[in-house]
Amino acid sequence: MKKNYLLFLGFSLLMSVQLYAQNSPNATLACVTGLGGASDPAFVNFAITGTTLSHQTLSPLATYYHEYPQEGSTTATLEQGREYTFVTSTTSEAVIGIWIDYNHNDDFEENEYTLLVNSMSSQNTTNLTIDPETMLGNTKIRLRTRAYGSTIAAANACTSFGSGETRDYTVLVVAPLPEVCVTGLGGGSDPSFLNLAITGTTFSHETLSAPTVYYHEYPQQGNTTANLVIGQVYSAFTFTSSEAVIGMWIDYNHNNDFEESEFIQLVNSMSSQNNSTFTISEDALEGNTKIRLRSRAYGSIIAGTNACTSFGSGETRDYTVQITPALSIDNFQKVTDRLQVYPNPATNIITVGQSIEVKEVILYDISGKIIATNTTNILDISNYSAGLYIVKVLYHDGQSSVGKVVKK
User: Fold this and answer.
1) Among candidates 222, 93, 211, 99, which has minimal Cα distance to 163?
2) How do strand 94-100 and strand 113-119 relate by DSSP bridges?
3) 189 — phi, psi (to 5°)?
4) What is the Cα 161 distance to its own chain's centre?
5) Which of 6, 23, 143, 310 has the most neighbouring CB atoms within 10 Å?
């Protein structure tokens, strides 16, 4: 009897281990070797529009399989049942297949496959809906390229190819978020926004033509977005077509609902041009964050509960910014060999890294406050006081480096 019980216990334990391995997104993938490949067609860019995943690799790769970390520009948060636009650029025309491990069993199965690209163009966009039955949590994605004219079938997740590249990413799948209110907001051509800017960031958005519709959502790129740091105070410049009341909501908890606690009254002034300050909450979640701005005729009221209220005047705008943690003193010692700042010490212009690699350069003072940013690898520090500064570089491949520069 005891022997039978021990056999039963051992069998149960074995089954539990197998079930855990099948359902754990951190288990080892079924195949990461013997995949073959070649330097062409390789990925130059892979992005999922509206997420943090935007991964450029401009240098040729020496190996043809890579697994990328679940951080920064090499991961994303995706909603069950939502359609996304997948953007791919390759070194030449290609066939591209994608597998999404919807059931978290670490096996890229045929029913998890989509032919993403089969095109004579090296740059493509494809819409793909995340299965509404996808398990929530960390989820593996595999992409494979192959020379145009070849075939990538659902059964080829582990097949050895003579061309192309294989990549694995990990994304976070979450339950569908409520839709942000974008209709029934009312409005009018006056007071409309002529200029919105956040000092010291890339956000500087001029729209000199009067709007004919009164709600707009702007892309997370160029002068319509910014990197904002938790706990930092920012100056916002607003210029409207007439004197206005202006309110702003920042979706700190990423629930797609502009709540009363997330509201800031930026402007209530008889002047059409104003400077206001706001602070990024210490409770803000990191990552892509929605911001809503609403204007209304001076003498009216914009309250925290009015994010979705229909107004008879003014304009509503939604932007997306990236919120990041403050640079801590611990980061000051994390200087990597990859980061080169020269000259150092310097009096005016510094060059940081190689221009082809650099996505953004951020300059901090010794307290960790951002004082300058640039999307090239050149920074002018001539107007700053002598002393020690911290330089952080974001690279196109999703990595980053932190270094020091001394201003003479």
Assistant:
1) 93
2) antiparallel
3) -70, -10
4) 31
5) 143
Token couple for 382 = 């001539």
Q: Output the CA torsion sign for 337, 338, 342, 346.
A: negative
Q: Kindly report, residue by residue over 102-136, the tens digit of the pLDDT.
A: 999 999 999 999 999 998 888 899 999 999 999 99
In a domain, 86, yes or no: yes
Statement to judge: residues 289 and 161 lie in one domain = no
What domain range is 240 assigned to? 193-324
Instruction: Report how far apart, in Å, the C-alpha atoms of 75 and of each of 69, 331, 356 are.
Output: 7, 22, 22
291: domain CATH number is 2.60.40.2950
pLDDT 10s digits, 251-301:
999 888 999 999 999 999 999 999 999 999 999 988 889 999 999 999 999
Domain of 355, CATH number, reads 2.60.40.3080
Identity at 173, one-letter amino acid code: V
- Per DSSP, the residues of 150-207 read B---TT-TT--BSS--EEEEEEEEEPPPPPPP-SS-B--STTPEEEEEETTSS-EEE-
One-letter amino acid at 117 equals V
pTM (predicted TM-score): 0.57
CA distances from 103 to 113, 170, 194 (A): 13, 14, 49
Answer yes or no: are the C-beta atoms of 292 and 185 closer than 8 Å: no
